[in-house]
Write a structure and sequence with these properties.
With 264 residues, the chain is mostly helical. It contains 12 helices and no strands.
């Protein structure tokens, strides 16, 4: 409980510091909403024109897109500095954090904390629209699907955070991790905006085993909006996410113990 209170106080201080520039915060939120909104409208128009992609309709793809928007927003909200961990290793900034009587990971999670309002609002809009249309088509019951979607978003956010921690930890030995992050975060996130059925078999296997980001959106959606898997998939996915998180945290502690300063 002490760590939770400390996190709230540090995150609050970070947020108040950023809100000193209210126009910048509002403008960046608006730009994020517009940028990702245009991206979805472009892809959605093409999918609607051709009647679907990989056997999935436009509102089913919209549901996947919304889940990934929430996952991405929550990760950037609570762990943006983990996503940019390379500068701490290369510039020697990590040494300063190690001198503090607070876990390094906790400090990183409180830095640059800010609500990703643009992404959250866009994700909520697309999620609501998609569920309404699927409910009107008789494919789902919207309030049941909405409740299950919260479980999918929770497990997806844990998956995304765990991969961020794993990628950051590799940097204790390689120092440069931006190229690796583009694979484990950017590439896999972009891939999971769409159904895995559009990819070749080897890529589907990779997104379900080696880099199992397919569990952030595609696998839960098979049950929630398509009914192809039993309800057991939701607790199983959450359990998988928690196990991955435990492994990521253990690997992080191992990396911290073997960290060698840059000398700066």
């Amino acid at each position: 409980m002490n760590w939770i209170r400390l996190y709230i106080r540090l995150a609050g201080a970070s947020f108040r510091a950023q809100m000193q520039y209210k126009f910048n915060f509002a403008f960046s939120s608006l730009m994020a909403f517009g940028m990702f909104g245009i991206e979805f409208l472009t892809v959605g128009t093409v999918i609607y024109k051709f009647g679907g992609v990989g056997g999935w309709g436009v509102y089913e793809v919209g549901y996947l897109f919304a889940l990934m928007m929430f996952n991405r927003a929550l990760y950037r909200m609570f762990a943006s500095e983990i996503n940019g961990f390379e500068k701490y290793l290369v510039e020697g900034l990590l040494d300063q954090l190690l001198l503090r009587p607070v876990p390094v990971l906790l400090v990183l999670m409180t830095r640059q904390f800010r609500p990703m309002l643009g992404e959250l609002f866009l994700g909520g809009t697309i999620l609501t629209l998609s569920l309404q249309q699927l409910d009107a088509a008789g494919q789902i019951v919207w309030y049941t699907a909405l409740a299950k979607s919260f479980a999918a978003i929770l497990s997806g956010a844990i998956f995304t955070f765990s991969f961020g921690v794993l990628t950051a930890t590799v940097g204790f030995w390689t120092h440069r991790i931006d190229d690796l992050r583009r694979i484990t975060d950017d590439a896999t996130t972009n891939a999971c905006y769409y159904p895995l059925t559009i990819y070749p078999g080897w890529m589907r296997m990779m997104l379900l085993t080696v880099l199992p980001m397919g569990f952030t959106s595609y696998v839960p959606a098979l049950h929630i909006i398509r009914g192809e898997i039993g309800v057991w998939v939701l607790p199983a996915t959450l359990l998988f996410a928690l196990l991955l998180l435990m492994g990521a945290l253990r690997f992080w502690r191992f990396g911290i113990a073997h960290y060698q300063s840059t000398g700066t």
